[in-house]
Structure prediction request, 1194 residues.
Amino acid sequence: VNLNSYENNEVAGVVTGLAWTSVGGDILFIESTLSKGKGNLNITGNLGKVMKESATLAMEYIKANAEDFGLDSEVFSKYNVHIHVPEGATPKDGPSAGITMLTSLVSLFSQRKVKRNLAMTGEITLRGRVLPVGGIKEKILAAKRAKIKEIILCEENERDIKEIKEEYLKGLTFHYVKDMSEVLDIALLKQKVAKPKDL
Amino acid sequence: VNLNSYENNEVAGVVTGLAWTSVGGDILFIESTLSKGKGNLNITGNLGKVMKESATLAMEYIKANAEDFGLDSEVFSKYNVHIHVPEGATPKDGPSAGITMLTSLVSLFSQRKVKRNLAMTGEITLRGRVLPVGGIKEKILAAKRAKIKEIILCEENERDIKEIKEEYLKGLTFHYVKDMSEVLDIALLKQKVAKPKDL
Amino acid sequence: VNLNSYENNEVAGVVTGLAWTSVGGDILFIESTLSKGKGNLNITGNLGKVMKESATLAMEYIKANAEDFGLDSEVFSKYNVHIHVPEGATPKDGPSAGITMLTSLVSLFSQRKVKRNLAMTGEITLRGRVLPVGGIKEKILAAKRAKIKEIILCEENERDIKEIKEEYLKGLTFHYVKDMSEVLDIALLKQKVAKPKDL
Amino acid sequence: VNLNSYENNEVAGVVTGLAWTSVGGDILFIESTLSKGKGNLNITGNLGKVMKESATLAMEYIKANAEDFGLDSEVFSKYNVHIHVPEGATPKDGPSAGITMLTSLVSLFSQRKVKRNLAMTGEITLRGRVLPVGGIKEKILAAKRAKIKEIILCEENERDIKEIKEEYLKGLTFHYVKDMSEVLDIALLKQKVAKPKDL
Amino acid sequence: VNLNSYENNEVAGVVTGLAWTSVGGDILFIESTLSKGKGNLNITGNLGKVMKESATLAMEYIKANAEDFGLDSEVFSKYNVHIHVPEGATPKDGPSAGITMLTSLVSLFSQRKVKRNLAMTGEITLRGRVLPVGGIKEKILAAKRAKIKEIILCEENERDIKEIKEEYLKGLTFHYVKDMSEVLDIALLKQKVAKPKDL
Amino acid sequence: VNLNSYENNEVAGVVTGLAWTSVGGDILFIESTLSKGKGNLNITGNLGKVMKESATLAMEYIKANAEDFGLDSEVFSKYNVHIHVPEGATPKDGPSAGITMLTSLVSLFSQRKVKRNLAMTGEITLRGRVLPVGGIKEKILAAKRAKIKEIILCEENERDIKEIKEEYLKGLTFHYVKDMSEVLDIALLKQKVAKPKDL
Ligand SMILES: [Ca+2]
Ligand SMILES: [Ca+2]
Ligand SMILES: [Ca+2]
Ligand SMILES: [Ca+2]
Ligand SMILES: [Ca+2]
Ligand SMILES: [Ca+2]
Ligand SMILES: [Ca+2]
Ligand SMILES: [Ca+2]
Ligand SMILES: [Ca+2]
Ligand SMILES: [Ca+2]
Ligand SMILES: [Ca+2]
Ligand SMILES: [Ca+2]
Prediction:
């Protein structure tokens, strides 16, 4: 899937992540949507157990911090959330899409735009910490191939970046974070998407 | 199954797809029906996990864009939807029936006729993008054997068509699309089916 | 199980099918009953996934065409349906009992008698088409051994009959069909069963 | 388990069956109890799928023929039924306990005594037919060892009895049946159990 | 786990059982607690299917005989019961903890003390019979090592005790039972536990 | 994950445990959160069956002893609890996180701070006893590496500590406990966390 043809920050909830597969790094997209319902969470994209748990963690974090995001907590019981990771033929698992999922969901509920040309990878915890993940070198190479300009990583992954040859890092800006709130400050614009939903 | 004996655009929800199997390409049919209920989705035809996820994605997309299709969103909680892929002896999986399922469901809910002698193959995303799929050459040969005249593919699959000898393509018209709305514009006629249901 | 000792068209819902097993053809029986309930469907007889899907398809078809069978659609939410295929020691699967199940269910809901000395085999679709099935030669031999006189098959299975030696077909009448409605016209008598239930 | 120490027709629902195992025939007991509830069916005793289906069939048959047993059909939604087959260390499967389960349940709901020194084996169908089962010779030898005096079998199993040496059959009376109603006429006494429940 | 440090008949529901494992006999403890709820039964301790069925049987027996235990049957729908078998690292299965579980539950619901220095092993049936179990010799040796003084066994296990050398039995008193009511008469004191719950 | 960067006793429910893995000892964190709901328990972190059972046991213990913790028992039906063990890529199982989970949950419901530089390992029972666990030597070494100062263990694990060379124990204080209440007395401060939730 081509980034330019795919990425579109005119809609809420579409965020670019970085994945590590047995054949190297790759970019992946997280999409999420809301529909009127009773608070169910539906997850598709041929995901494994750990990746589904990441989605649950992200959702719980948003519920627990609803006020900080300016959200009325009633919204969680009035809408169903659907998270999808495209390219259904590929099984996907692991915790590294955690921050990507959270960013997608906060964009969705706040209807704020996601920064363009940005990718991210990092595990999340229930308390909002960001944990380091593996496969950093391969993920960075994939990000460059996809014309990504900025990357969000866990602070503890800075050591992995330092081991990569400088020429591979040219044109990339790195943001090192410890907490989910820092991810959201970087990734989400103040501006709402076109035709924002009124939740 | 013979296309002529099967296809019948007098009823809503019957759409022709293209499948790739270990013994070559094949056509397949998606059927869907509505019955009074509480909004359940029932999927049969010996389908694997990824193909069932496609059905869920298609259904979510329709719910999220109900207004664009002139649908009252109450309809989704008053009817059960059943999607079936005939030839139950054959296990079926993969994301490539996504656009076929979506077309079937929009035909069903709008009671619009599906264009005749048309087949399609492509993955869908939650946000309505169409993604490229594999096995294009085999699928095209199967479509020709079945007397298909028009084929809808993802824009990114055009490169696969260009690699096929011209003589195999004679008599076929290709439509390359990026978004689900383009698929529906091509595949669905304005005309309603015979004895349309009043939802 | 002996056909004469088993078959009894004095009760609704008992229909004879034809099965193909690893040791040759066989006849099988489909039984169904109604009990007051909330519209649940219970299926027993050591059936595999595809055969259970056939039962679901048959049930959906009847619901979608209730009016054509003179049925008040409220009946489906006021009764539970139980479908059973005797000889529980034998695992059973495949789509070929589809028309047998549908005939059983329409007999049950309409309380009409099933024609005697009749057997059938064919896959059904959600839209009521009958699809061809395999193992025709073995099934015909089993039907003869069981003193069956008439057999319903999909139109596309006629070619399989033409390949069977004439002497094996003596005494058998074949009905070739395309749609479920034709099956029901042949298999169900106008006459109600003894002591018909008033639904 | 010793028959004399176990069997007790002073309580409803305890019936002796005959089982065939890899090490020969054996007797088994079916127990059932009622407790106030919502009509749930609970089945224990390390049973396989087919044996659980037999319990379901038995229960459905009783519901469908409640009037014939003098039962008010409201009773089925006001009580939970629990069926247990003792000796939990042994996995048990197969359809041959069908008539034993049905007899247990009718005894339970009618609170009628079960005839003493009686055992039985046979598959049941949804419509109340009794089907033949295997392992007859081994089951008969086990019945004799356990001091059983009368045995109920399917009519079609008579041929298996005829192949057994007369000396092994001395002291045993056989009842051959076609329908469940015959089983119940033989197995259940008119007399109620001690302290019958008033359902 | 050391018996003296563990056992405490000041609380209801803690009962000592005897288990047979691949490395010899062992004692085990059954614990149970009540919490306000809707009558759910929760079972933990890494238990297999048969051992979970024992817990269900014990619970059903108590419900069916509530009056005999002086229990108001409303209590079963107002409390949740949790049964736990400590040492979660060890998988546990088999029917022999049946009488231990039942004793635990009757102690819990009646808030009566359990006799000290007592252990037991035996399968239970739905009707309250006690069935013999295996591994008796190993279980007795484990009981002695743990300073157990009295042991409850099924009457039919007496033959297994007679095959054990007298010196191994010194200091042990055996109770042989046929029915659950005998187990409870031996194992439960009339005295209530400290701070009995008022159900 | 680095202890200093992770541990933060300003929030309730974050507790440090000790784990034994095939590559040696390690520290792990238990996090828990509350969100308005109906009393559901959600557990993530790629946990096995036994570890999930520990979470259930901890929750049951708190419910059964709500008064002792100054908790209104209505709180359990008005909030959902989510327990998470970070580092989702690593499967985790075994009973030894029991006391860590309980401490996390009591901190959460009471909003009391957890003592800093403290780690613990021990199985819990339904009745609040603490049972010994394995891998003590490796766990102690991991605790030292992580700058832990105090460790809570089951009394019966004292013998394992005595077998470790004194130099490895320098700077560590051990607390040996028999009951959960002792764990909580040691691990939880009287002081509430910053911005305590008012449940
Ligand atoms: Ca890709
Ligand atoms: Ca990622
Ligand atoms: Ca085909
Ligand atoms: Ca397709
Ligand atoms: Ca047969
Ligand atoms: Ca058939
Ligand atoms: Ca036996
Ligand atoms: Ca039997
Ligand atoms: Ca032990
Ligand atoms: Ca035991
Ligand atoms: Ca670690
Ligand atoms: Ca631990």
